[in-house]
Design a protein that fits this description.
The chain has 119 residues and is mainly α. It has one domain. It has four helices and no strands. Helix 2 packs parallel to helix 4. The longest helix has 47 residues.
Length: 119
């Protein structure tokens, strides 16, 4: 918990990029009328436009998500303490493995426990 009452989970939520939803491809029912077919063609054209935009936005999201993850790891090391450089990857992997299903705060708790070994 930080002085302002925020937890690591709160910081994660503030920094996390907003996920971009993938557009749904329209469908055409069996035995369509001419009007149904035209509406489908229009919807399909819009889908293609939306899909192209989605691919660009998703690539940007993926980039931001990696940056966010790396920033959160740096924050946890800043808060959680320090270990000799040659052990950092293994220590963090263990903390991640044991805590990630419960969120960033639990990863920090696991990290605290592991860092104690080096004190």
């Amino acid at each position: 918990m930080f002085d302002n009452g925020q937890s690591v989970g709160d910081i994660h939520e503030l920094m996390e990029p907003i996920y971009v939803g993938q557009p749904r491809k329209p469908t055409l029912e069996r035995n369509p009328t001419a009007e149904d077919a035209k509406a489908y063609v229009d919807a399909l054209a819009q889908y293609e436009t939306d899909l192209a935009r989605y691919k660009v936005e998703k690539a940007e999201y993926d980039k931001l998500d990696v940056e966010h993850h790396n920033n959160m790891v740096d924050l946890l090391w800043y808060i959680g303490g320090d270990v000799p450089e040659q052990y950092k990857d293994k220590v963090f992997s263990k903390a991640w493995s044991d805590g990630h299903s419960s969120g960033w705060s639990e990863i920090l708790n696991e990290l605290y426990g592991l860092v104690e070994i080096f004190r």
